[in-house]
Design brief:
Elements (H helix, E strand, L loop, with lengths): L2 E4 L2 H30 L5 H24 L1 E5 L3 E4 L9 E3 L3 E9 L2 E8 L4 E5 L7 H15 L11
Antiparallel strand pairs: 1-2, 2-3, 3-4, 5-6, 6-7
Length: 156
């Protein structure tokens, strides 16, 4: 059974804000270039095509990030994508030695320490859903990956 985690809504809103700031800068550049076209200093068609391509690429990138799976947990292991500074992006459950909760640069993170000393850092605040649910799901996948079964309690 696999679990997929995408970016959280507030994180996407921040990305949209950055994108809008970039579009504002693009409009400023377009205004300057349009002024230069009117004064016949550069060709107008090339400027318009360039701006249209830049805007299209920005919108496609934003849509791709919004729908992208950031963390995938399955029976074999985990995969982390689109997280800068995550460390190891993919490993099997048998490679994971332990899991620790920590704070990196003010962000709550889960650190997966591998047997060879490498680590994977996952900032839980950028993931959609509850961070507690993510950690619980991660622990269940890790336990299954190592072959651990829950102890039978009273009445079981």
């Amino acid at each position: 059974m696999s679990s997929n985690y995408r970016f959280a809504g507030p994180f996407i809103v921040r990305l949209v804000g950055l994108t809008l700031a970039a579009v504002g800068l693009l409009v400023l550049v377009a205004t300057v270039l349009a002024f230069m076209v009117v004064r016949r200093e550069v060709g107008g068609a090339g400027v318009l095509v360039g701006l249209a391509v830049a805007l299209l690429v920005g919108l496609c990138a934003l849509l791709a990030v919004r729908r992208a799976v950031v963390v995938r947990l399955d029976d074999r292991g985990y995969q982390v994508r689109l997280v800068r500074g995550a460390g190891v992006h993919r490993a099997g459950w048998k490679e994971v030695e332990d899991v620790a909760a920590t704070t990196v640069a003010g962000a709550r993170c889960v650190v997966l320490r591998l047997r060879d000393g490498r680590t994977t850092t996952i900032p839980v605040d950028v993931l959609g859903g509850s961070s507690d649910d993510f950690v619980r799901d991660l622990q269940q996948h890790l336990n299954r990956g190592h072959g651990y079964r829950p102890l039978a309690g009273p009445g079981r």
